[in-house]
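@here heads up, posting the sequence + SMILES for the NAP run so it's all in one place. Ping me if the SMILES looks off, I pulled it from an old spreadsheet.
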Amino acid sequence: MTQSDFRIAFVGGGNMGGSILSGLLDSGAPADEFMLIEPDESKRQAFSAHGVACVGEADARLFSAEMVLFAVKPQVMGQVVAGLREHLCVEHLIVSVVAGVSSSSIARMVGFESAVVRAMPNVPALYRAGAAGLFANAKVSAAQRRLAEQMLAVVCDTEWFEDEALIDTVTAISGSGPAYFFYMMEVMQSEAEALGMGADAARHLVAATAYGAGLMVKRSDTDFSELRRMVTSPKGTTEAAITTFESEGVREALSKGIQSSWQRSQELGA
Ligand SMILES: NC(=O)c1ccc[n+]([C@@H]2O[C@H](COP(=O)([O-])OP(=O)(O)OC[C@H]3O[C@@H](n4cnc5c(N)ncnc54)[C@H](OP(=O)(O)O)[C@@H]3O)[C@@H](O)[C@H]2O)c1
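bot reply: prediction finished. Complex structure tokens:
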């Protein structure tokens, strides 16, 4: 690698771009492999301090990057790509975590048939505990797939999909998913309080329960339904709750909610 050769150029060093870059640096990747293009000076300074080459606007050094990762807001994506298009070339792997912008739209913005990986991570990626669905267009080589996956793996568990339409499903499941669990936790906390528990104790117990349940599913291959049965003794307290959920239509309501999220993702993408 020559001095100006970068492995990854980050376009946008906010929540998502910044988390991935921090994750790579923390995992021991050399800072001189990265370039950050970011208009916000304070974000540039934070990464310059670690030895990352930070610039406010793209320059010719972008040509030497293997991968260009776009982590900007969807509404500015077109304008951002237009601003640095002259520094993009067909050898670049373009990776985008930008919600709702398809790989063909990205190739159109870039202006030539580029290798594009689209990734949909979720909010826990900020704590390196995210889940991301990935899609590669036909121009992406096996080596480029590995590079994209290695990069995202520092903040997310990853899953590849061969059909880009499934990115809308990823959005409805893991993208919006953390909020479904938070919703359940809101209900649990408010019921604990209604039944006499203090707010702090309720929050503490709900958070520890959610964390413990997450750990159980991560550390075992047992089906979710089987795990549920394991904590549901016949005629016991958990069974009383689950029977009520089922008779009140909670399962159907959750299914419909997930379908609404999927539909909304398609509408926003269009
Ligand atoms: N956050 C998540 O959990 C999450 C999950 C899934 C997908 N995503 C996707 O990730 C993308 C980024 O989200 P985010 O939460 O990281 O947003 P963010 O924190 O606002 O980060 C975007 C960054 O891009 C910078 N930027 C603006 N114009 C630029 C330009 N011309 N060149 C380079 N950088 C520029 C912004 O700088 P300024 O602040 O100065 O404008 C900001 O630092 C979005 O498209 C979102 O859909 C995010």
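MO: The chain has a mean pLDDT of 94.
MO: One more: The radius of gyration is 22 Å.
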